[in-house]
Amino acid sequence: MCTERGWTPVEYADNDISAYSGRHRPAYQQMLADINAGHLDAVVAWDLDRLHRRPIELEHFIDLADRHRLALATVSGDTDLGTDSGRLFARVKGAVARSEGERKSARQKRAALQAAELGKPRGGPRPFGYEPDGFTVRADEAKALREAYGALLAGGTLTGIARDLTAAGLKTPQGKPFRHSAVRAILANPRNAGLRAYRHEIVGPAQWQAIVPEETWRAAHTLLSDPQRRTNLGTARRWLLGGLALCGRCDDGTTVRVNYRERDAAGTPVRVYRCRDHAHLSREANFCDWRVSERVIARLGRDDARDLLIDDDRPDIAGLRAEADKLRMRLDQLADAFADGTITAAQLRSGTERLRGRLADVEARTVHLDRAPLLADLVTAKDVRKAWEAAGLDRQRAIVSLLYTVTLLPRGPGRASISVDSVRMEAKA
Predict the structure, then answer these.
(1) pTM exceeds cut of 0.70
(2) Helices 393-403 and 285-300, axial angle in degrees (round to 10)
(3) Are the C-beta atoms of residues 275 and 249 closer than 8 Å to each other?
(4) Topology agreement, domain 2-117 and domain 139-225
(5) Which of the four pLDDT bands, split at 50, 70 and 90, describes residue 143?
(6) What is d(CA 135, CA 208) in angstroms, rounded to the nearest whole number?
């Protein structure tokens, strides 16, 4: 067309970037800039719907074409944007293209949701632990994945797990070395438990084989969702009781944080635990950590320490799963009833809120942290103190949280000696 009209062409191509999506199209933006600068006299496209699929972009282009007396040619026919009929045609064409895009998007979303509800794998890169078909388990990676979940639930860090995976000669499916962010993403993936998710919401069981039990994945997911794990460079993760021990003055569940700015009588900087909300509690961190560690070591070294591995409070996982399935079925029935017109939108909203609340409660109860991975090697160790010191901070914190509720009480007035009783430890087991 350019040759026939004697125009010298300059190509602007945004390959694989849909005009409908609204994503930034750098070549298109450059074309607009060149029109504004007076470098172009005409625009040629295959069709109008290849140029714009969003009415707001079309209106901007019409305004630009009018100001610069721009010619517009397409293979399907020229459009004179300088006339009202030409602008009407362009707008109708744009509206039709927009509607087609919306219908296509809706079809794709319905197809993706249907595939998810049927438990089919989604496309994309090969998932860690599986072959490229998404169904077949890759044995060495599956074994490493199970060990990684065990390490996480035993108090291990994501960085440490990444280091172990690298030492085993494994890489991510993209062929890159493991970092803590990649480990987090892999362990948080519900497909490892044989669950299919759609838009970050689990919609049902998958067709492929699970690598770990559902309760293991849910326990790991809850642990990874803890906001404190996302601040592992903060003070709460460097000290045993930061964000874990309770303030004895508030006595309402308020935790303590670490403060690095205080000094002792000699002017030496000391780390102290302070109430998170008020300035009415300040306790030396070293002493409190020592007191808690000694108590835990003593408990793990007792003759009856093996009794800690017996979990009388373990929930009925199978029963809770069945209850969750029933609630999900009722949610589907509620949606069908609304689609059939037998209930109103208000009834749908009210019923959905109640059922989702009950479902969230049931799913929360299925999350159960096994005692054995946390405690087994410590209660059977010949030297419990050495095993405790080698356990690592995250695991030590997990053990303290499992066994005790720790509350820091104010120390006595004046220069009263520090009492071990000022670190109150109430046994949970």
Answers:
(1) no
(2) 70
(3) yes
(4) no
(5) very high
(6) 5
Assign 53 a pLDDT band (cuts: 50, 70, 90). Answer: low
Q: What is the DSSP letter of 137?
A: B
Sequential DSSP letters for 71-103 = EEEETT----TTSHHHHHHHHHHHHHHHHHHHH
Q: What is the pLDDT of residue 212?
A: 92
CB-CB contact of 244 with 406 (8 Å): yes
Query: What gap in Å lies between CA 73 and CA 52, rounded to an integer?
Result: 14
How would you label 42-58 residue by residue, b for 16+ Cβ within 10 Å and e otherwise? bbbbeebbebbbbeebb
Question: Distance between CA atoms of 331 and 345, rounded to whole angstroms?
Answer: 14
What's the mean per-residue pLDDT of the chain? 81
Pick the CATH number of 2-117 from 3.10.450, 3.40.50, 3.30.420, 2.50.20: 3.40.50
The CATH architecture of the domain made up of 139-225 is Alpha-Beta Complex (3.90)
Sequence-ordered alpha helix ranges (H) in 168-252: 180-187, 214-224
Residue 284: name the closest of 423, 424, 427 by CA.
Answer: 423
Torsion of CA 330, 333, 339, 343, to 10 degrees: -70
Contacts of residue 25, defined as CB under 8 A and 6 or more positions apart, other chains included, come to: 14, 17, 19
97 pLDDT band (50/70/90 cuts)? low
- Residues forming beta bridges with residue 407, ordered by sequence position: 246, 424
Extents of the domains making up the chain: 2-117, 139-225, 235-312+371-427, 317-366
Q: pLDDT tens digits for 161-173?
A: 998 899 999 999 9
Residue 39, both tokens: 């470098």
β partners of residue 42: 71
DSSP 416: P
Strand ranges for 34-147 from DSSP E = 42-45, 71-74
CB 153 within 8 Å of CB 370 = yes
